[in-house]
Amino acid sequence: MKIFQFLIQNKKKEAEANIYVRMRVGRKIDIKQRTMFFVPVKNWDDKMGIVKNAKTSELKELVVALSNVRLRLENAYLKAELSQEKIDKLWLSNVLHREQQKEGALPETLIEYFDYYITVKKSTAAAQSIKKWSSVRQKILAYEVDRNYTVQIKDVNEKFRIDFEDYCKSKEKLSANYFERVLSFIKTICKHAGQNDLDISPQLHGLKAKKETVHNIYFTREEIELIHRTPMPSEELENSKDWLIISCNTAQRISDFMHFTNDDLVDMVTGIECIKAIKIKQQKTGRLLEIPIFKMVKEIMDKRGGNFPVSISDQRYNVNIKKVCKIVGLDQLVFGTKMDKKTKRLIKGQFPKWELVTSHIGRRTFATCQFGHLPNTHIMAYTGHTTEKQLLAYIGKPQNEVAKLSIQTLMNNGWI
User: Which residue has the higher pLDDT, 245 or 216?
Assistant: First the structure.
C-alpha cells in the first residue's frame, strides 16, 4: 500500500480541482494536506490518484511535478522515521512547503520560493491567480527536468532568460506574449525575494521579452443589436445569447457575469434619478463595482420575468456563443488567433469572425465601443481596471480609428 496518495475533492466534470495529498501509515497516521496544484476534473483518475489523458504540455508537466512531490515526501518520511521525528499534519505541511524546513531561513531556489510566495499570498489572492502562478511554477519545473539543473533565485539573469525562452518556445510552444507574462511573474517572484534580503541578479530588473501585436476582435454596436434581435433555434442558445449581450453591456469577466443574480440588484441614486444597478465584487480583483442596468439587459430580464438567464459552465458558454454568432451571420473574414484542436496551441490567420468569439469578447466590446464616447476613467469604473494602460490594452480599434475619435472634440475646441 502506498503511503502517499493524491486525490481531489471537487467532482464537477467541467471544473478544475485542487489536488490534495493523503498520508496513511497503518492505523496510527491518516492525514491530508492541500497542495498548490490544480487539475481539470475530467483529467483525473480517482481510483489511481493520477492524471489521466495527459496529452497537453501542462498536464505532462503536472505529472512530472506530482512525481517529484511524491519522491520528496517519501524521502522526508524515511528520514523522519530514522530520527523518530513527530509526524503529523504540520510535518506534512512543512515538507510540502520546503521553505519551512530551514528553521526560518527563506528558500533560495526558484521553485521553492514559488511555493513560499504562494503560501504567503494565498489568503488574499484570487483562486484564479494562484492557478496561474502554479502553472508558471510547473513550467519552470519542467524546464529544470529538461536541463537537469535547479534554478537558483540569483540565477535569473539574461543567460537564464535566453535559455528559458528558447525552451518555452521550442518545447512548450508558448507564444511570445504568453512567455512575456511568464517572465514578468518570475521577475515578480525574484523581486519579492530581493525585498526579503535574498541575493538576486543585478540584471533582473532589465530582463525583457519581446511582445507581438495582438489582434483583438470585438463587436460593433450594429453587431450587438443584430445578435440581440436574432431569435435562436433553441432555449439553450437563446440563454447563451442573452449572457453574451449582458457581457457586452456590463464589461465583466465570465467569472463575474455568469454569477449575476437578483440578489445583486441595488438602487443607484444619481441626483434626482434612481435606477437599477448590479452590485458585485470582482472575483479576480476583489473590487466592488456598481453597474447600471443598460437597456438591452433590462429587455433580457423583462423577457425572463425579471430574472437573469440560467448560469452554465464556461466551456459550454464558449461553444454556444460561437454557434450563436454563426447563426447571426458573423462570417466575415478577420485576422486573429484561435486554438488548434490538435496541438492545443494558438494559431494565427484569417478566420470567419464567429470562430474567434470567446467569453472575453463582451468585456473587450464594451471597452472598445465606449472608448472615445466616455472618458477613460468612466470606462474604468465599469471594467474595474486601475490604470489607463490596462484599459488601453483592451481597445480593439486600430490606432488610426482611435485618432479619428478625437477630431470632432478638437474641432469643437477650435484646434482644427
Answer: 245
Torsion of the alpha carbons at 250, 253, 259 and 262, rounded to the nearest 10: -10
> Average of pLDDT values for 380-397?
79
pTM metric for this prediction: 0.63
Alpha carbon 110 to chain centroid, angstroms: 22
SS3 150: coil
Residue 373 pLDDT > 90? no
Strand partners, 313: none
178 CB-near residues (< 8 Å, 6+ apart) = none
Q: pLDDT (tens digit, 9 = 90+) per residue, 85-104?
A: 888 888 888 788 653 344 34
Contact assessment for residue 139 and residue 62, using Cβ atoms and an 8 Å cutoff? no
- CB contact set of 241 (below 8 Å; sequence gap of 6+): 227, 228, 230, 232, 321, 324
List, in sequence order, every residue forming a beta bridge with 40; answer none if it has no partner. Answer: 16
Kindly list the distances between the CA atom of residue 267 and the CA atoms of 30, 273, 296, in Å, as whole numbers in the listed order. 52, 10, 18
Distance CA 278, CA 259 (A): 11
* Dist CA 249 CA 239 (whole Å): 16
The sign of the torsion formed by the CA atoms of 37, 40, 41, 46 equals negative
* C-alpha torsion sign, points 148, 149, 150, 153: negative
Please, which residues have CB within 8 angstroms of residue 374's CB and are 6 or more apart in sequence? none
SS (H, E, C) 312-344: CCHHHHHHHHHHHHHHHCCCCEEEEEEECCCCC
- List the 273-281 sheet strands across, edge first: 265-270, 273-281, 288-292
Q: Which three cell numbers stand for residue 82?
A: 530514522
C-alpha cell at 235: 432555449
**Which cell numbers hold the place of 241?**
445569447
How is residue 109 annotated by DSSP?
B
